[in-house]
Every structure is written in C-alpha cells, then in structure tokens.
Amino acid sequence: MTTVLIADDQPLQRFGFRMLLESQDDMTVLGEATNGAEATRLTAELHPDVVLMDVRMPGLDGIEATRRIIATGARTRVLILTTFDLDEYAYAGLRAGASGFLVKDAQPEDLLSGIRAVASGDAVVAPSLTRRLLDTYAHHLPTGAPTANAGPEDDDPRLAPLTDREREILTVIGQGWTNTEIATRLHLAESTVKTHVGRVLAKTGCRDRVQAVILAYDTGLVKPA
Questions:
Q1: CA–CA separation, 207 vs 69, rounded Å?
Q2: How many CB atoms lie under 10 A from the CB of residue 189?
Q3: Are 99 and 208 a contacting pair, CB within 8 Å?
Q4: DSSP label at 142?
C-alpha cells in the first residue's frame, strides 16, 4: 500500500486528488495540507511514502517545504505539481530534492503511475528533461552557487569517492544518457552499467538519477548546452 499526503491550498483540487487516489486498491491518503508548513509538519507525523506537493501555497511554499522534508533524511519522496511542463518551479523543486514533477493537467493515469514510480524509488522525470531544465534556468542560480563553469581544479568533495570510471558514468548520466546508451557508447554490458550507476548514487548520496544529473551539473562535470 502506497501512502500519500496531499499538499494543495485549493479544496477542490485536494478533493479531486483524494477521490482519484482512494479509488485505487494500492493507495491510501494519510492526510491533507493547505500550505507548506502544514505539509512539513504532517510529513514528520505521518511518514507518507509520497507527498503530492503543490508549489504555490500561502506562507511556506511547496519548494521550501520540499527542501525541509528532504533535509530531514526521511524516506518520504516528493512529487511536485506544476502548471507548466518546463518552468522555474519544476527546476527549483528538483534542486530542492523532489523526485520528479508532473503538470497539473496530467491525465489521471499519469498521476497514478507517477506516484507509484516515486514510491518505488524511481524518478518521474527523464534525466534529459532535467538537463534541459537546468540549462534553461541556470541564470536563476544565486550568486556564489555552484555552476558548471567551475574548472576541474575546483573539484567538489562529493566527487572524491568516485573512481575514474564512476566519474565518467556520472558525467554521461548528467548528459541524459540512458543505461542502454551508456552501454552501447562505452562498450559495456548493461548489467555492468547498472552496477556502476548504483555505486555512483550510493557514493554521492543522490536519491535517484535526477539528483545525479543535478550533481553532475553543479560540480562542473556537465556544462550548459
């Protein structure tokens, strides 16, 4: 059973989500939050598998709520809901630690499959789209934040545990390559690629491939297109 917390300031939106989710045999709604502060508090109390997180809410918004939830180290994953399929809110949400995003006008089956994917540890956003988001919104980074303009001499300590091969794998993950593409282009067995990817995620502390793309971008392994 996948447990979900719904965070949205619109009562009708929450009602619609609840009706949809509770029509499924494998999902249950643990609670509803009307703002980010309430979402953060209820997540700590209820420990849902997934928080369905709206972005624009009064007081504490969904981005900061996501950041606070992820910072606790809880197993809860966040699925951001945004108005557009490529906007700064999706960008900010992914950087805050969300495992993916969906547009609010997504088909019901897409929302359900997205929740299931996030709950099982997958990301709901293709790494190639994450890369496009990062390229598009790089100028939103605050001054002093890590960027892909840093040279190799400015090595990030998060890369230190990686072998040369693992660093190469992280780089091509950051470029949006799939496991099949990595296997073909680097002349590796796909099972070997999966092993390398798993080690990269474990050593860097990335929750999924989306976060690995962000790390590759931040540390300068991948530069804006």
A1: 13
A2: 9
A3: yes
A4: P
Beta 2-7 vs 50-54: how paired, if at all?
Answer: parallel
DSSP for residue 123: -
pTM: 0.79
Spell out a b/e string for 140-156, using b for 16 or more CB atoms within 10 Å of the CB, else e: ebeeeeebbeeeeeeee
In this structure, what token pair is assigned to residue 84? 């557009």
Query: pLDDT at residue 45 above 80?
Result: yes
Burial (CB < 10 A; 0-12, 13-18, 19+), residue 3, is middle
> Helix %, strand %, coil % for the chain, to 5?
50, 10, 35
d(CA 32, CA 172): 39
Listed residue (104, 103, 80) closest to 210, CA to CA: 80
Q: pLDDT tens digits for 10-21? A: 999 999 999 999
Q: Report the chain's terminal Cα–Cα distance, integer Å.
A: 41
- pLDDT tens for residues 151-186? 443 578 999 999 999 999 999 999 988 899 999 999
